[in-house]
Amino acid sequence: MHALMRACVAVLLVGACQALVRPGRIVGGEPVPEGDAMWQVSVQTRTGAHFCGGTLISDEWVVTAAHCSVNFKAGAVQVAYGGNTLDSMKAVVPVSRIIVHERYDPNSMVNDIALLQMAPSARSSRSGTPIPLETREDLGEENCRVTGFGRLSSGGQVADRLMGVWVPLRSLEDCIKDFLPETYALTDGHVCAGGGREDACQGDSGGPLVCCNQNSTLRSDECNLVGVVSWGIGCATPGKPGVYTKVAHYKSWIEENIGGSVGDMEVTNAGGDITPSYKSNKKFKAKISKSKIRAEQTKP
């Protein structure tokens, strides 16, 4: 599987990988209005090439996916934010530190979460708006929104404008039925959303899934960060929801690593990591079928 991932990764970085399993995507969405989703971050190489999304959770920290970060050194990465096109970002800030979850497992995609610390001299709090973290682990069937600068179709054109789409949350039980036995593990640290013609796509990995008050705009006083775009099968594949790292499950891990609470929320002991135990629960065991699935990792 590792060789298969590396081969597909190499192709993806030149824009030609058209496979089934992918971390990231926005398909079937619409442009996000100027001033909305000001927590959205473009994670880039130092030459300005977008490769993943991220979310401002404070004036200093960005949360993203581990698979977006694990192969990079801090000096090779920057974050851009404060605009709804890649050319209109008001702040471009070098990353001074990368914290990948210590139990991230690329073979199962559990603990697919990382933190990026922005260099202090270049931060611009006026350009972006951090979003609060969701604290509830059980969310029900809410309608939430995923945003990003990723591809508009599987293997297709990259968006230069921030796109967003509403996607309904799915129960973990239904998500497991949709995916097994052909994919990665699904655990209590995941949340699923979508499953129709709207979804994230390659390049949206690491970006935000947010749930807001009904009919609200994408503003930080109306929305909470629920998930981090992790993986899925294709882009907007019927019957296959997108899979996200559940932020509430990692809230204590986030706050322990950034040295305090996020927003006005207290630090809670919510667990914070997952060690997959396939022996104790067989339905969480997910085998990779090399004949059907290629992993589209947005990493070198």
UniProtKB/TrEMBL annotation:
<keyword id="KW-0645">Protease</keyword>
<protein>
    <submittedName>
        <fullName>Serine protease 1</fullName>
    </submittedName>
</protein>
<dbReference type="GO" id="GO:0016485">
    <property type="term" value="P:protein processing"/>
</dbReference>
<dbReference type="InterPro" id="IPR018114">
    <property type="entry name" value="TRYPSIN_HIS"/>
</dbReference>
<dbReference type="GO" id="GO:0004252">
    <property type="term" value="F:serine-type endopeptidase activity"/>
</dbReference>
<feature type="domain" description="Peptidase S1">
    <location>
        <begin position="26"/>
        <end position="259"/>
    </location>
</feature>
<dbReference type="InterPro" id="IPR043504">
    <property type="entry name" value="Peptidase_S1_PA_chymotrypsin"/>
</dbReference>
<feature type="signal peptide">
    <location>
        <begin position="1"/>
        <end position="19"/>
    </location>
</feature>
<dbReference type="InterPro" id="IPR050127">
    <property type="entry name" value="Serine_Proteases_S1"/>
</dbReference>
<keyword id="KW-1015">Disulfide bond</keyword>
<dbReference type="Pfam" id="PF00089">
    <property type="entry name" value="Trypsin"/>
</dbReference>
<dbReference type="InterPro" id="IPR001314">
    <property type="entry name" value="Peptidase_S1A"/>
</dbReference>
<keyword id="KW-0378">Hydrolase</keyword>
<keyword id="KW-0720">Serine protease</keyword>
<keyword id="KW-0964">Secreted</keyword>
<dbReference type="InterPro" id="IPR033116">
    <property type="entry name" value="TRYPSIN_SER"/>
</dbReference>
<dbReference type="InterPro" id="IPR001254">
    <property type="entry name" value="Trypsin_dom"/>
</dbReference>
<keyword id="KW-0732">Signal</keyword>
<dbReference type="InterPro" id="IPR009003">
    <property type="entry name" value="Peptidase_S1_PA"/>
</dbReference>
<dbReference type="GO" id="GO:0005615">
    <property type="term" value="C:extracellular space"/>
</dbReference>
